[in-house]
Amino acid sequence: MYVCLCHGVSDKKIRQLVLEEGIADMRSIKKCTALGSQCGKCIKQAKLILNETAPQLYKQAC
Fold it and tell me: One digit per residue, pLDDT tens: the chain, 62 residues?
């Protein structure tokens, strides 16, 4: 599903950045994707996806 329509950022892309690149904060996701830099309506949904996915990153490290 598209989270950011303005820049074409999907939930899959956010999860990929977290799990494969180790990015676990909104600032870094915004740098990589320009998410939230236009209308900003996507930020809330992106934070939810980040908060769901980030714990999986730490489980993989153990």
Answer: 999 999 999 999 999 999 999 998 999 999 999 999 999 999 999 999 999 998 887 766 55
Domains in the chain: boundaries:
2-60
Residue whose pair of structure tokens reads 């809330």 in the numeric block? 44
Asked whether the CA dihedral 20, 52, 47, 7 is positive or negative, the reply is: positive
User: Considering the entire predicted model, what is its pTM?
Assistant: 0.87
CATH architecture of the domain covering 2-60? Orthogonal Bundle (1.10)
Helix, strand or coil for residue 19?
helix
